[in-house]
Specification:
The complex is a heterodimer.
Chain A lengths: L16 E3 L3 H11 L12 H6 L6 H16 L3 E9 L10 E13 L2 E12 L4 E11 L1
Antiparallel strand pairs in A: 1-3, 2-5, 3-4, 4-5
Chain B lengths: L8 H4 L9 E4 L2 H11 L9 H6 L14 E2 L27 E10 L8 E16 L3 E13 L5 E11 L1
Antiparallel strand pairs in B: 1-2, 1-4, 3-6, 4-5, 5-6
Classes of the chains: A alpha+beta, B mainly beta.
Amino acid sequence: MAVKWESINVGETLPDLSKKPGVSQLVKYAAGSGDFNPLHHDYNFFQSQAIGSIIVHGRFKYASLGELVSNWLGHQGRIKKLSCQYRGMDFPDKEFTCKGTVDRKWEEGGEKLAELTIWAENTEGAKTTPGKAIVAFK
Amino acid sequence: MAEQFELTDEMKSKVGWESPPWTYEVTTTSVRAFARGVGYTDPVYFDIEAAKKAGYRNLPAPPTYLGTAVFIPGKTDDTFSFPPGSFPDVRHGLPGLLDGGTETEYFDQICAGDILTGTVRLAGLDVKESKGLGKMLIISSESIFKNQEGKVVAIQRGQAIFY
């Protein structure tokens, strides 16, 4: 499934990556990342009670955008830059989908590069986590 | 909601502040734990043979994973696992906190077996106003990660929003 720089086109889309993390998945992410903020696993935490739910780690969505790009690249290149902003909350057991498009393709300093617009959106189509990536192909 | 908030000279004097260095370990176990936490199924992040076949020297760190800070009870932040002394002492008095965003720039491969040294720098302080949250203080930080050879392998920038 790996892509080649020569065959990608500006405007093409990356294969979607949909996720519906439940509490167990968020607990696994907490353990893997070291982020044990109770807002992401404890419904009795004051902030969870104020919101009415625990919420998905912003960084889980950031890492998922990394997974979107990693799956597309298929190890035929490397990520040079990956960024996102946390604009909206996502909730456990609610699906969100990571998406991306190729914005630009160019060569610079002997590297074959591409710039991507990436984002996570919820089932209502709201982009909760917009971002950008730059990748260099082998 | 803060109606009034201004940067004081004392706050501004903290820009450029740098944390002491701290060790971040990238191990086969920590890479697998992170990849599992994100929900990867790609064997390259779990199986060393698959990683080598894909051209890596060991399990590669998945995107956004920059090692696990060495944990010392009583020193490390117990909730976020942040190393001791990794926050500048900016006394702003604003109670709310939001994560604004993250950017990671990579300069080289990071694989299991690497030992990274990270330092955090206070890159900037800005005050903005939002309709919903009132006056907000945006603390921009920059974390620099060097590997065991002293090479800068990644720089991570983030914005913490206090309101």
